[in-house]
Amino acid sequence: MQERTSFPSMHFMLMFLNNNKGRNMLAIHEEDVEETTMPMTMQDIINPGSARHVPEFPDAPSGWSLESARREAERMGIRLGAEHLEAIRVIQGAYRDEPAPPLRRIHDALEARFADVGGMRHLYEIFSGGPVTRGCILAGVKPPAGAVDESFGSTA
Predict the structure, then answer these.
(1) Which of these, 24, 95, 100, 101, is most buried using a 10 Å CB contact count?
(2) pLDDT tens column, 31-78
(3) How many CA atoms lie within 13 A of 24 on its CB side?
(4) Which domain holds residue 26?
(5) How many domains, in total, are found in the chain?
(6) Strands 148-149 and 24-28, how do they pair?
(7) Rounded distance, CA 130 to CA 100, Å?
(8) Shared domain check, 73 and 26
């Protein structure tokens, strides 16, 4: 007598066989096995299917897309170029390991990545309104505490 039990969440079919000696045996039907892809990020594991992964931006937050960044940049009066996109990657990378990295960590990461072209001074030229603040908004993450100081009218 054969009894089939399926586990759809595991994407394979199990068959329990009862042989004549009262021992149960386990068999996997290869024709029933579905091919699946491994999740690429922790967000893919936590929220499967919530958003498609953007290969050029491996650390992008769930729900972020390049198109949404382009729309937001246009609203800010920024024309996205290669340096803007690289700054977005750096910022998203800073948020990869820590959900709310300190302002200094993001600042230092941007300074190090763009040191050969002038560092933060250059980034302030291409990101009107502050590279950390505007970069975080374009990267789809919340700017860190202290990035905007309304009392002084300054932005990082």
Answers:
(1) 95
(2) 544 555 666 666 556 556 555 567 899 999 988 999 999 999 999 999
(3) 6
(4) 2-32
(5) 2
(6) unpaired
(7) 18
(8) no
